[in-house]
Amino acid sequence: MAAFTNQQLHYRSDLFGRLRIPGPKSRNGPTRVRMSLQENAPSLAVVGVTGAVGQEFLSVLADRDFPYRSIKMLASKRSAGQRISFEDRNYEVEELTADSFDGIDIALFSAGGSISKQFGPIAVDRGTIVVDNSSAFRMVDGVPLVIPEVNPEAMDGIKVGNGKGALIANPNCSTIICLMAATPLHRHSKVIRMVVSTYQAASGAGAAAMRELELQTHEVLEGKQPTCDIFQRQYAFNLFSHNSSVLPNGYNEEEMKLVKETRKIWNDSNVRVTATCIRVPVMRAHAESVNLQFEKPLDEDKARDILKNAPGLVVIDDRASNNFPTPLEVSKKDDVAVGRIRRDVSQEGNHGLDIFVCGDQIRKGAALNAIQIAEMLL
Ligand SMILES: NC(=O)c1ccc[n+]([C@@H]2O[C@H](COP(=O)([O-])OP(=O)(O)OC[C@H]3O[C@@H](n4cnc5c(N)ncnc54)[C@H](OP(=O)(O)O)[C@@H]3O)[C@@H](O)[C@H]2O)c1
């Protein structure tokens, strides 16, 4: 079994996004000198800093020594005044307003689509480059939808310091995790059809959903009626169709995001994609079964080699001990794990492949991907 290559985090927000991001320690223990707070570095704003993704932004910024000269912590009026300790400094959460973006170079948004729609364009007008985690702008023409390992060229020419604001969208978490594994194979043999089935964690629905899954688990085990505020149904010891709205064509919004975003990211309006998205009672990290049909043949050994050499991916594919990717194993990790790599016996020759992918969707599916985008702005 391959080991994860990415560096283990020394610290992070706790599972439920409580507000403490302590300064880092070197791998041997003592605190190392921070290089990220620099006078000539960009000024940052984190919008939705108190949420699951917002907290992860802080962890990833610290973990990657992202350079910044200042950082503004923004959330709703409810959280204004709350204190956040980040990299040995204390910050006060401020209420997001139109004036929040004065002098801000890069804003990382994760406060929901309506907030992005309202404040994203205001920020851009003030010269800020917005990296948005919501679905508000993903399918808007001219807004790059970027996975850095897949289509970095989509944001060519957008840089901090050229005096212009811009919007860049982070794809949906399920799309990112799927395409991290499917793209290297697509580049080799061109995917013509993809069938995705997801097993999505509580964390994808935010910090409150994670808290409710934990609460419900206690309640069910104690023989009590479970609290059902978030999904209006029992989540612990259950699974159900993804909670996004069901559209007139019978697909839910999450499924159609996979369909549409794949076409935009691959710049291929002909690729046929279908998806079934399911919420499972896993705390953190999504799993996806992905069936691929290729234009050109691709045998499973070659596919395994391609995946082993792909950036941001780790192959866990040990048939002898029946060991394959799991959500637990990828939780809080940067890399997406792929396994169960096998020829699809229902397709002719080597034109079909099945794979199973797991990725931490708060990390690579949201915060890490957004900060990799921000790194390309420097
Ligand atoms: N969770 C994931 O894995 C994931 C992955 C990809 C994308 N996303 C997207 O990221 C966004 C946030 O998701 P999340 O999971 O982090 O949700 P969450 O845990 O519920 O956090 C929501 C954040 O938005 C803030 N917020 C809400 N209303 C606001 C307002 N009126 N003004 C300013 N801030 C406001 C909240 O601040 P308060 O604490 O003050 O309410 C909180 O910081 C959503 O658009 C989601 O679709 C999430």
TrEMBL record:
<comment type="pathway">
    <text>Amino-acid biosynthesis; L-threonine biosynthesis; L-threonine from L-aspartate: step 2/5.</text>
</comment>
<dbReference type="InterPro" id="IPR000534">
    <property type="entry name" value="Semialdehyde_DH_NAD-bd"/>
</dbReference>
<keyword id="KW-0560">Oxidoreductase</keyword>
<keyword id="KW-0028">Amino-acid biosynthesis</keyword>
<keyword id="KW-0521">NADP</keyword>
<keyword id="KW-0220">Diaminopimelate biosynthesis</keyword>
<keyword id="KW-0486">Methionine biosynthesis</keyword>
<comment type="subunit">
    <text>Homodimer.</text>
</comment>
<dbReference type="InterPro" id="IPR012080">
    <property type="entry name" value="Asp_semialdehyde_DH"/>
</dbReference>
<dbReference type="InterPro" id="IPR005986">
    <property type="entry name" value="Asp_semialdehyde_DH_beta"/>
</dbReference>
<comment type="pathway">
    <text>Amino-acid biosynthesis; L-methionine biosynthesis via de novo pathway; L-homoserine from L-aspartate: step 2/3.</text>
</comment>
<comment type="similarity">
    <text>Belongs to the aspartate-semialdehyde dehydrogenase family.</text>
</comment>
<dbReference type="Pfam" id="PF01118">
    <property type="entry name" value="Semialdhyde_dh"/>
</dbReference>
<dbReference type="InterPro" id="IPR036291">
    <property type="entry name" value="NAD(P)-bd_dom_sf"/>
</dbReference>
<dbReference type="InterPro" id="IPR012280">
    <property type="entry name" value="Semialdhyde_DH_dimer_dom"/>
</dbReference>
<keyword id="KW-0457">Lysine biosynthesis</keyword>
<protein>
    <recommendedName>
        <fullName>aspartate-semialdehyde dehydrogenase</fullName>
        <ecNumber>1.2.1.11</ecNumber>
    </recommendedName>
</protein>
<feature type="domain" description="Semialdehyde dehydrogenase NAD-binding">
    <location>
        <begin position="43"/>
        <end position="158"/>
    </location>
</feature>
<dbReference type="Pfam" id="PF02774">
    <property type="entry name" value="Semialdhyde_dhC"/>
</dbReference>
<keyword id="KW-0791">Threonine biosynthesis</keyword>
